[in-house]
Specification:
Layout (H helix, E strand, L loop, with lengths): L2 H14 L3 E8 L3 H11 L4 H9 L5 H20 L6 E10 L3 E6 L5 E6 L2 E9 L8
Antiparallel strand pairs: 1-5, 2-5, 3-4
Helix pairs in contact: 3-4
Length: 134
């Protein structure tokens, strides 16, 4: 690895140490369904988001709740204190691998079935309570 590449990799690594996140890969839910859940909790306080996910009827909300709890635990592990004034700063839902299947169709044809999956990345951060308002 060249010097310039190594320096930029170290800078990225240092910047990542201040971020608190959790990732969930290859979730067997379509990205569109998971984005509906992600949009519900984006920007919310953590306790309120946990309540929303707990009582949501969508199947993907169970996985998102578990991921949010993991992100909170990561924050507590890095900061060695209890999670207070945390909020969901960002949620990314990206498409993952797609299982492709064929379904029998009339007259000897076959229809394609695409079983989609996704990757979810959830970031939490502490709210700044000492903002100077002029």
């Amino acid at each position: 690895m060249g010097a310039r590449k190594r320096i930029s990799a170290e800078q990225r690594k240092e910047a990542k140490k201040t971020l608190y996140f959790a990732k969930l890969n290859n979730v067997p839910t379509s990205p569109r369904k998971m984005r509906l859940i992600a949009d519900m909790i984006r920007g919310m306080e953590v306790n309120k988001a946990l309540g929303v996910l707990k009582f949501s009827t969508k199947e993907a909300s169970n996985r998102m709740e578990k991921l949010l709890r993991s992100a909170i635990a990561n924050w507590e592990q890095k900061n060695e204190q209890k999670a207070e004034d945390l909020y969901v700063s960002a949620v990314y839902v990206d498409s993952a691998r797609m299982l492709k299947r064929l379904r029998p169709a009339p007259q000897g044809r076959g229809y394609r079935i695409r079983k989609r999956s996704n990757h979810v990345t959830l970031f939490v951060d502490k709210k700044n309570t000492n903002d100077n308002k002029i």
